Amino acid sequence: MTRIWIIFAGLAVAGLVYPFAMPGMLSVAVTVLLFAGWATAWDIAGGWCGQVSLGHAAFVGLGAYVVALGQVELGIAPWFTLPAAAALAAALAWCWGRLTFSLAGPYFTLSTIAVAEILRMVAINEDWLTGGAIGVFISTLPEPFGIDLFSREAQYWMALAFALGTIALVAILSERRFGYRMRAVREDENSAMAAGIDPTATKLHAFMLSGALTAVGGGIYGIFLSYLEPHVMFYLFLSVQIALTAIIGGRGTVFGPAAGAVLLVGAGEVFRTAFAQANLLIYGILILIVVLFFPRGLVAELTRRIARRRYARSAQSE
Amino acid sequence: MPDLLRASELTVRFGGLTAVDAVDLRVGEGEVVALIGPNGAGKTTCFDALTGFVRPGAGRVELDGRDVTALPPFERTRLGMARTFQTERPFEDLSVLRNVLVPAFLRHPRRAEAEALARSALERVGLADRADQPASDLNLARRRRLELAKALALEPRILFLDEVMAGLNPPALAEMIAFLRTLSDEGMAIVLVEHILEAVMQLADHVVVLASGAVIAEGRPDAVTSDPAVIEAYLGTE
Amino acid sequence: MDTTAFLQNVSNGVLIGGVYALIGIGLTLVFGVMRTINFAHGDFTVLGMYGAVAFNAAIGWDPYAALIVAVPAAFLGGVLIERFVLSRLVEAPPETTLLATLGLSLIIGNCLLLIWGPEPESVNVSYAATTIALGPVRVSVVLLAAGVLTLAAITALWLFLSRTETGRAVKATASNRLGAELVGIDTRRIHSLVFGLGTSMAVIAGVALIPLLFANPTSLGPIFTLKAFVVTVLGGLGNVWAAIAGGLILGIVEVLGTAYLASEYRDAYGLVVFLAILLLRPEGLFGRTTKRA
Fold it and tell me: How many CB atoms sit inside 10 A of residue A167's CB?
């Protein structure tokens, strides 16, 4: 437990120092942080509770659109619309989960794709609300205390707060009652029920929390891009990317999804020059490797092996 | 003695098969009731119906005078029922302590209290020294004890034990019998599904014999085992 | 409502639905025998489209002639994937194979993107706009060709499954793997064969579609995969005949929805039906009521 908070403190310090050390590389860092937060949020439902969703882009899109439309159409500042986006996402997750949690494993996963795709089509076609396929352009943002929210620095701090906040929340939950309820539901629903746990309620709460946090990241993403298109925001491959980041990093671990984000966004940057738009190739290759050889995820498996080696060494020296 | 659990006319059908046929059952506070019968007699299905894992086609289940027939298993657990599974199902990926923390949280939302309860449950079943091992590493006898610890951590009023003694070697069996005796002396009501007659004879206050889903005899252990109908249906087939 | 226009729409729906059925059959066959949900299925259809484009560009033959090369290649590819990836995951939880095939989908799509670039590709054939009058409706030749190809592929598959020794072994494996093994069927070989057949069906559908649709490397694959899921879930996963009915229903629903409701939601109708079926009748419209997987 304390080890988790030591690692967390290390990450926080790294996050605080980074913009001063590498001021020219802030865009990549924002992307890493957003994916770290999203993957960690995804993992609440997907890893801790075992409900693999391939539709989380719907929450990203919802968050981004609520923040953008709030600003552009109604002139409401992001700090009001971000909580609203989270609440809306939780409500969406509640309805969505109510409908689909009766489905087992792979069927649930397929149904999440269907729900997210339907939302994408709504975003494309309901021009009166979303600006349709043309999208929404955020041209003005308020300047709290004279901070320019269009600046990469401000966006970096928002993304950092989002990522660290999500990780901290998961670290806390993982050792609390709710964390244990999620684990029990993931491992065996009948045993969970025998322990007095309502599996459907647990899944719903996990999915709502996961969706709400993802939407907050979506709102920040909207500000970061300042231009929203349904094809980007509700993109099926964004859902896939978020899920695979968490799975490749390590499902059901506090830092696995964030580590996955560093690894994959970093690899994406390296491959971007070599492979242009085909940067998802690396996700495909890595998920195959993980599924075949590291079923717990790369980072989780790595730390497990290091721990085991250390254990073996201490056993030898005794 | 007032009844803690009362089942009346409990009936479960799977398609054309009647697995549990109009079973009546009463369990008083601190009483140990054993369900025995040949394989396929419907003991586990009866258990599932009592604990809510199977919806009965007819009949009702009352806990402390309250009708719980329509309640899902987790609601019954909250009201004081706890069960073990015949094929024990620890949360394989979690440590022994964390396995017991899951049920311990039911009545103790605070982590420190839940952990204290979980550790004391492990202490009681003699697994305290294995708290940090992964549950998947435990052997059969210890898995059984882990199941028991999980059930105890729910602080139940009535404990349903599905063949917790099967496959145990004689010393482990004697230990388990003694432990259940202690629990019962402390006032815990226990319902057993059990094949090992020796254990039933030592523990049960009341024995119910099932065959083809129906009750064919019940009464004190010594009376039941000398009943000719029981000998024919049950002992005769062994 | 104009009857001729309605019949015209229905006939188009039936023909496009036939191709959906062909895609769905491959998916349902793989699921029925292997209990694997193949997320890369639609990407094989896209591979078939690009195969035809490449064949046409390289030799200048009619795109349909690409089948000569594409079908054996797809079969071989399917067998190899089953051998080296899926057969290792038999014991793993069902999500794992879904993730593995999702990885394959990303690899296929992005490799196509690297080779062809993001611009849509198609093949120009001289008869693209030709239509034939069938009673009151006019049917385009390429749609008709797609229908004929579908019919031929499905008939061939049906003959294989019902008339050959190996085909019966496939059916035996689908209904009870352990039982099949007990009577001496090498179910590992059957799995490879079935996955190869599944990819072949997907590729044939791709060739049938290329004169009708533009191929694009990454986004079209998942759309086909989703359509195939809709088709199979509509009929009941694992049931070949029900997949045909499911394909026809999807084709007609899409065409009629586009014509009489809102055309922008063409791809949504199938998904809504898909969700409704999953939730209300997970065993499919024509499936028997069995336990949920």
Answer: 23
Strand B206-211 vs strand B32-36: parallel, antiparallel, or unpaired? parallel
pLDDT band for position A234 (cuts 50, 70, 90): confident
The tokens of B4 are what?
């803690």
Q: Does domain C3-280 have CATH number 1.20.1740?
A: no
Residues of chain A contacting B51 with CB distance shorter than 8 Å: 194
Q: For residues C37 and C98, what is the distance between their CA atoms, to the nearest angstrom?
A: 6
> Which percentage of chain B shows pLDDT scores above 70?
97
Q: Is A68 within 8 Å of A225 (Cβ atoms)?
A: no
ipTM, 2 dp: 0.89
* CATH entry, A27-317, from 3.30.870, 3.30.70, 1.20.120, 1.10.3470: 1.10.3470
Average pLDDT over residues B49-68: 92
Flag if C264 and A52 touch (Cβ within 8 Å).
Answer: no
Say whether residue C276 is in contact with chain A using an 8 A CB cutoff.
no
> Rounded to whole angstroms, how far apart are CA atoms C262 and C254?
10
Token pair, residue C62, equals 């009619």
Q: At C143, which amino acid appears?
A: L
- Chain B residues close to A194, C-beta within 8 Å: 51, 73-74, 77, 82-83, 85, 103, 150-151
Sorted by where each starts, the structural domains of chain B and their CATH numbers stand as 3-80+156-237 (3.40.50.300), 91-154 (no CATH)
| Residue A188 in this model has a pLDDT that exceeds 70 | yes
Work out the number of other CB atoms within 10 angstroms of the CB of residue C134: 11
Domain ranges of chain C: 3-280
Neighbours of chain C (3+ CB pairs under 8 A): A
First to last CA, chain C: 43
The amino acid that residue C242 corresponds to is A
